[in-house]
Every structure is written in structure tokens, then in C-alpha cells.
């Protein structure tokens, strides 16, 4: 660094200015603001002062965010570490912290770079759930107490236990009640530490080998799952749960929610109603591979950033909708203060969509999304609708399945492990199906409709297309639909269960 000035005076045209302890320039020409603190009392003020000084410097010197660095050096970090970490995780500025040790003459002895505390992700429920079935209320209550005791012993303190009743008679097991366990997702380091404490060396090596080729998200889920496995509670029968399965059980009216018990961080938040937590358990807030829902004001910039991040989960393999949904959310944020609502349903499984749409009302089974942008100043409200369209090309179903999956039974096998989703757009292309987005604008003069739109900043335009709606495919190519229905019906045993 090259010193510009110590005790650099910064003027404030709108209030009190201040003095930067050390003002410098680095080798890349960036301005560097350094704050020095040597007591817990003054350390508390460091982040406030940095925020003020960088705002003034940017206005006075007309510099970009990327052209300013912030450094805080303190001999005491007890009061400083939490606000420093929060500022570090919340800002895009280059921010560094250092702990300085000095002698009785205030001469520097050693210096150590501070590692910020991990970013708090907020409520983030693991998508691996556990489902246990019971006959009586007494068994139900005993099981919950046992789960809580064992979880706490494992170091798992933050979790939910949802209680459901069955809306049908279970002839085989005679069960009437469901205990549904889901935990707050922790870090890999947390799970590895707990697993090492509660697993044998052989079990640990097996887990590490199993997860070595997984991506970060799958590894985290798998480690959480392995720790959950250590909770052994008597039950009539049990199964693995996940958000999509829960949605299906509730949609089919098989289960009815009675209550949700909150533990740890969940218990400390009085805002959390059963309805809100059920949305989390269903994965609607970002954990589901199929569904997403959010509603906010565009003034809530943190929520907009959260939506842009979380909507990726259910649109991971759908490049067209993923890019357009993000463009539309960014577009909504440019329109001033608006109410924004987004709902996504995307299975990435066109064969199953054809099967279910061909045997039932197509509407519940056809992938779609809705984004409603409703300005609070009474300007026209806009609704954007994700749709599937057909280009009326010639189709050879057998060849299409062979090219993408090899055989239909290979498709079923890949479907079982979720691997089909990455190939779904390829199969859609074989079938002449594609994703589009339409727009309806409601004004005082009526409705304006645009088909197959594209978004460029604040501009929305219509792209000429010769495609027809997905319903036309279902009607005009009933031969293809019937062939898909026959394939599924010959292998389908029960909901979600197929024979290979």
C-alpha cells in the first residue's frame, strides 16, 4: 500500500464528516480505507464508521464499488467478530479483518487475518425426511420423546416433527398416524464431526467413499441422512420422505396435518406458524425439484435475491425457463414498487406428463409457471405464463426413446434415481416440444396478449413462432399419447412404483 494520508478528513455535505485512520492506495490503484481499534468499546463502532466512510468516499471521488478496499485492524475482537462477519457476508466490498497483538508500549508484535463467521442461511430444511407410522396416540407420543432425546444426544437440536393422521384405512399395518421428521441443514464440517463421534471407523470410511464422487449439495444431504439413521425408534413401519412425496400425499388427500412441533432455532421464532412451516416441508421455498412459490414486494431486495437463488432448484435442467424467469424477476425489480408473485411447477419428465395428461385433465400435470407483476401505482398488471408448445414436426416415439434412454425400461430405471431430468429437454426436442413464455397485460382498456416473449432489460417483445399449444399435441397426436399410456400402464404397479 502507498499512504495517501493518516487521519484523512472526509467531508459530508449532508451531515457530520469524519476522519479515516489510514487512507491509502494499493498496487492496482484501488483506494484503501483502514480503521484501527484497540478496545471492545471502540471496536463496536468499526463497522458503522466503515459504512459511513465508504459511502462518502464513493460520492466525493466518484469511484466504483470494486475500486475501494476496506480493512479493519483491532486488538480486541470479542465485540467486533459478529458485526464484521455480517458485514462481510452481506456486502460485495473487498473487506479484510486483522487481529493485532501489541506490547505495553503499543508496538505491534504479531498480526493474524480474521476468518469471518459462516454466513447464516436462515431457515433451510434438509430435503431428506424420515416418515414413521403408528397405531395409537400412546405409541405416537412415546416415539416423539424418544426421537427428541436421541437427536439431542447426536447433537441435532434444530428440527421439526410434523404429526399427520391418515385419511384412509391401512389394512396391512393398521396404522392411523404419521410422525414426520425434518432437520435444519447444517454444514459438512458439522456432520463429519458428529459422524466421527457416533460411527465406527469402517462406517466412516464407507460414507466418505460413497460421497467422494457426489456434488456438494448431494454430499451434504447424504451426510445429514447418515446421522439421521442413528435415530432408532420403534414404529410399525417407516420410509424415506422428501418434499415432492409430501406434496403428493397431501394433494391426494391421504394425510391430514394435525400439528408441527418445533425444536431448537425453530422454537425460538414466534412467527413460524404450521402453515408457513408446511410450505418449507413441501419444498415450495427452494428445496423442491418440482415446485416453487414466493410472494414479495420488489422493494424487498433481499427477498428478490433469495428468489433468484432458490428458483434455480426446480429449474436446474430447464435452461429456457430458468433464464427467462430470472430475466422476468429482474425486469419486475426495475418497475418500481410492485407486488411480485411467482409459482413454478416443473417435473422435467415429458413422458410422465404425456401419460398423466392423456388419462386425466391435462392441467394439473402439465409443467407451467406464473409470474404476476402488479405495480402499486395502479399501472397495468402483467402476468407471465410458462407453457409447452409443439412445432408439429413428424415424430417417431420409439426412435426418440431409443436415442435418449436406450429403452423405456432404462428410462424407468433412470427415473427411479432422478437421472432422467437431465435428459428431458433432449427428449422434448425429439418430440417437437419446446418451452415458451407468454404474457398477458391487463390495462383499463382491456387485455393485451403476447406469445413467445423475450426479455431484454425493461423491454419485452414477441417472437414470431409457428408453434401450437401443448393441448393440440394431445389431441392431434393421440396415437403417440396412447402409446405412452400403454407403456406406463404395463409397468405401473402403484403410485410411484414401477416394475422393471
How is this structure best summarized?
The protein has 500 residues and is α+β, with helices and mostly antiparallel strands. It is built from 17 helices and 22 strands. A hairpin with a 5-residue loop joins strand 2 and strand 3.
Structural notes for this entry:
The structure is a single chain. The protein is α+β, with helices and mostly antiparallel strands and 500 residues long. It has helices at 40-43, 46-61, 81-90, 137-154, 188-198, 201-211, 216-228, 243-251, 274-281, 301-310, 319-333, 350-359, 397-405, 408-417, 424-430, 470-476, 478-491, and strands spanning 2-10, 18-25, 31-37, 68-74, 94-102, 108-113, 129-134, 159-166, 177-183, 237-241, 255-263, 291-297, 338-345, 368-375, 381-390, 433-443, 446-450, 453-456, 459-462, 468-469, 492-494, 497-498. 36% of the residues lie in helices and 29% in strands. The strands form five sheets. Strands 12, 13, 14, 15, 16, 17 and 20 form a seven-stranded antiparallel sheet that branches. A hairpin with a 5-residue loop joins strand 2 (18-25) and strand 3 (31-37). Helix 12 (350-359) packs across helix 17 and helix 16 (470-476) packs across helix 17. The N and C termini lie far apart (67 Å).
- The stretches of 5 or more residues where confidence is low (pLDDT under 50) are none
Number of strands: 22
Q: Radius of gyration over alpha carbons?
A: 28 Å
Alpha plus pi helix count: 17
Amino acid at each position: 500500500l502507498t499512504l495517501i494520508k493518516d487521519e484523512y478528513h472526509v467531508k459530508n455535505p449532508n451531515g457530520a464528516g469524519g476522519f479515516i485512520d489510514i487512507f491509502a492506495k494499493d498496487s492496482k490503484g484501488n483506494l484503501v480505507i483502514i480503521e484501527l481499534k484497540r478496545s471492545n468499546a471502540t471496536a463496536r463502532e468499526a463497522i458503522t464508521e466503515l459504512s459511513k466512510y465508504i459511502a462518502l468516499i464513493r460520492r466525493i471521488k466518484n469511484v466504483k464499488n470494486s475500486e475501494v478496499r476496506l480493512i479493519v485492524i483491532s486488538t480486541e475482537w470479542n465485540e467486533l467478530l459478529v458485526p464484521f462477519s455480517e458485514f462481510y457476508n452481506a456486502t460485495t466490498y473487498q473487506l479484510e479483518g486483522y487481529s493485532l497483538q501489541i506490547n505495553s508500549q503499543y508496538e505491534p508484535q504479531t498480526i493474524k487475518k480474521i476468518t469471518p463467521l459462516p454466513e447464516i442461511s436462515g431457515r433451510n430444511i434438509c430435503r431428506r425426511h424420515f416418515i414413521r407410522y403408528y397405531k395409537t396416540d400412546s405409541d405416537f407420543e412415546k416415539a416423539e420423546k424418544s426421537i427428541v432425546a436421541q437427536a439431542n444426544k447426536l447433537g441435532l437440536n434444530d428440527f421439526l416433527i410434523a404429526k399427520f393422521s391418515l385419511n384412509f384405512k391401512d389394512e396391512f399395518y393398521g396404522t392411523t398416524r404419521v410422525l414426520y421428521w425434518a432437520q435444519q441443514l447444517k454444514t459438512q464440517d458439522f456432520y463429519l464431526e458428529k459422524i466421527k463421534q457416533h460411527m465406527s471407523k469402517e462406517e466412516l470410511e464407507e460414507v466418505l467413499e460413497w460421497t467422494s464422487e457426489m456434488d456438494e449439495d448431494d454430499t451434504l444431504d447424504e451426510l445429514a441422512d447418515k446421522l439421521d439413521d442413528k435415530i432408532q425408534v420403534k414404529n410399525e413401519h417407516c420410509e424415506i420422505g422428501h418434499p415432492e412425496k409430501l406434496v403428493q400425499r397431501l394433494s391426494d388427500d391421504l394425510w391430514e396435518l394435525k400439528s408441527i412441533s418445533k425444536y431448537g432455532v425453530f422454537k425460538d421464532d414466534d412467527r413460524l406458524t404450521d402453515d408457513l412451516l408446511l410450505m418449507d416441508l413441501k419444498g415450495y421455498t427452494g428445496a423442491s425439484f418440482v415446485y416453487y412459490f414466493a410472494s414479495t414486494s420488489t422493494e424487498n431486495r433481499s427477498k428478490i435475491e433469495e428468489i433468484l437463488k432458490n428458483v434455480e432448484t426446480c429449474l436446474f435442467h430447464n435452461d429456457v425457463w430458468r433464464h427467462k424467469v430470472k430475466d422476468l424477476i429482474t425486469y419486475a425489480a426495475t418497475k418500481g414498487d410492485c407486488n411480485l408473485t411467482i409459482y413454478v411447477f416443473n417435473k422435467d419428465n415429458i413422458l410422465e406428463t404425456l401419460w398423466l395428461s392423456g388419462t386425466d385433465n391435462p392441467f394439473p400435470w402439465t409443467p407451467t409457471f406464473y409470474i404476476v407483476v402488479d405495480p402499486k401505482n395502479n399501472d397495468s398488471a402483467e402476468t407471465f405464463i410458462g407453457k409447452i408448445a409443439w412445432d408439429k414436426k413428424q415424430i417417431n416415439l420409439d426412435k426418440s426413446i431409443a436415442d435418449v434412454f436406450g429403452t423405456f425400461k432404462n428410462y424407468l430405471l433412470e427415473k427411479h434415481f432422478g437421472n432422467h431430468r437431465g435428459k428431458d429437454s433432449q427428449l422434448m426436442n425429439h418430440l417437437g416440444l419446446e418451452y415458451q413464455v407468454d404474457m398477458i397485460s391487463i390495462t383499463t382498456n382491456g387485455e393485451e396478449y403476447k406469445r413467445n416473449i423475450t426479455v431484454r432489460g425493461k423491454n419485452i417483445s414477441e417472437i414470431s413462432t409457428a408453434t401450437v399449444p401443448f393441448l393440440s399435441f394431445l389431441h392431434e397426436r393421440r396415437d403417440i399419447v396412447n402409446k405412452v399410456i400403454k407403456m406406463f400402464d404395463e409397468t405401473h404397479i402403484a403410485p410411484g412404483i414401477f416394475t422393471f
